[in-house]
Amino acid sequence: MSKKENQDYDIIPVNWPVVICVTILFVIAFIVALLIEEKFLCFMVPVMLMILLGGLGQNYILTKEAIICRFFGVTNRTIPWEDIIQAGIARYASRSSTETRIILTLKGCPKYQPEKERGYNYHMRHRDQTIAIDEPEYHFRKIEKYYGTLDYGYDKIYPLK
């Protein structure tokens, strides 16, 4: 039996190349701000880097029991699958955009209605009660493995069956 067949979890990883590139750009910007002695930029560059990397450093480990949310390797939240009441692929940006995310809705949160609003607006309004996962074309099968069939999706973009 191969290692992959024996694995009882899936990982939705951090996009490390993007994190590294963004960090390098901000380090260069910080050095330039120091060289031109711009105090405001010296303060703002590290703050902007922390804000930007905050969103990029999130990854998820999917197990049979729960989703483990990690931020740069530190577990900050564990969500049992029983606490997820809805899962699907939603258009995340404008209606004309093809950008999509997997939206997981937790207990206590109103269900998402894809025909009424964008996934981004819903996710931002219910940030503590939802999870938005990038690149659904790579990850929706992993979610289906543990959650079951997705509740909604855009079959024209990613066939769900």
Keywords for this structure?
38% helix; 3-stranded antiparallel β-sheet; 161 residues; single chain; 7 strands; disordered C terminus; 4-stranded antiparallel β-sheet
Provide a concise account of the structure shown:
With about 160 residues, the protein is α+β, with helices and mostly antiparallel strands. The protein has helices at about 5, 15-35, 40-55, 120-125, 135-145; strands at about 10, 60-65, 65-70, 75-80, 85-90, 100-105, 130-135. The chain has a four-stranded antiparallel β-sheet. A three-stranded antiparallel β-sheet has the order 5-6-7, sandwiched between helices.
Topology:
Layout: H1 3-6, E1 9-12, H2 16-35, H3 39-56, E2 58-63, E3 66-71, E4 74-80, E5 84-91, E6 100-106, H4 119-125, E7 130-133, H5 136-147
Antiparallel strand pairs: 1-2, 2-3, 3-4, 5-6, 6-7
Describe this structure in words.
The chain has about 160 residues and is an alpha+beta fold. It has a domain at about 15-60. The protein has helices at about 5, 15-35, 40-55, 120-125, 135-145; strands at about 10, 60-65, 65-70, 75-80, 85-90, 100-105, 130-135. The strands form two sheets. It has a four-stranded antiparallel β-sheet. A three-stranded antiparallel β-sheet has the order 5-6-7, with helices on both faces. Strand 5 and strand 6 form a beta hairpin. The radius of gyration is 18 Å and the shape is globular. The model is unreliable at about 1-5 and about 155-160 (pLDDT under 50).
